[in-house]
Amino acid sequence: METKLWNLRNDEPLGPQVKEAAALIAAGEVVSFPTETVYGLGANGLDGKACQKIFAAKGRPADNPLILHIAEMGEIERLTRGLSPMARKLMEAFWPGPMTLIVPKSDLIPDVVTAGLDTVAVRFPSHPVARELIRQAGCPIAAPSANKSGKPSPTNAQDVLQDMDGIIAGVIDGGSCDIGVESTIIDTTGKEPVILRPGGITREMITEVMGTARLDPGLVRADQTPKAPGMKYRHYAPQAPMLLVEGPEASLGVIRLAIMAEASEQRVGVIALEETLHHFPKGGNFVVHDGGKNLEELAENLFRELRLFDREKVDLIIGEGVRDQDLGLAIMNRMRKSAGHNIVWAENGLLVRKSGHVPECLQTIVMEP
Fold first, then answer.
1. Which member of 118, 166, 205, 317 lies 3.0 to 4.6 Å from 242 by CB, making a disulfide possible if both were Cys?
2. Radius of gyration of the chain (CA)
């Protein structure tokens, strides 16, 4: 299949530029498009056969439901059997934006979209390209991230093409995504909001509006299965093994581990905050990527930098963790998954294995718990 690329031009009306892509979606094809979070892999969310093409393109497990994207808030009404007061309050506070709500599904929705569940995930994005595409397609668009399953999500069209060229009908190039991590998923079917996947709408923001926001136990405990089926799978993984450094001395730990790995003739990739990189040694066999000066920049840069490491053929990636607060919760969720939960804790001058595996070249300086 030839994959068409549409390069959007800011000096021309948006509608005519996405007309062909919208027609392809209406005809049952799969098209990638930008959102404010990451690029999506979209198909007609009410056409089961079209949605099956998403699963085939991604290599996505069939028990991992899709998110339906809508162009206006009211379009959720026909997709659900009913909205709770909790759901409506969240919609009023955070839509359009990077928030996905779990609601009871209506009979309109094919089982392939919901993986047979009696609930459906719905999102009202703020990105103008996404909304115009949905309007012109005339249907809710089912869209997971536009990457092969297990790889880092794409935040630009070039990364989509790296995974999907020749596999899907087209890619709309709308530039880089602003937020960089996928939407927050909130289950609204219980008595209180439960965060199934952290994202750009933070737990603190939800608590301010709702008075409470509980994390799904599967997000914080390794012995609990996440309620969101997709969260149980390995995600965001670069090709090289990755080690994540957490703790109050994470910055120093990253530097120590990188130097040790490089001394063992490893080509070492490092992703860390700008402040840490000011103290990083010059020269050596390092591939150093700047995560940014704050959480917002780290979230925006993370997936792009992980994909760059693949192209740069590093042997090992060492990442700097951040605190599990505000946007840091979503960042750490992604970084831990990227690292396969291979985590070292840095505190009081010591490096201690917290979970997972430590590469052999670093085992002499990393203590066992």
1. 317
2. 21
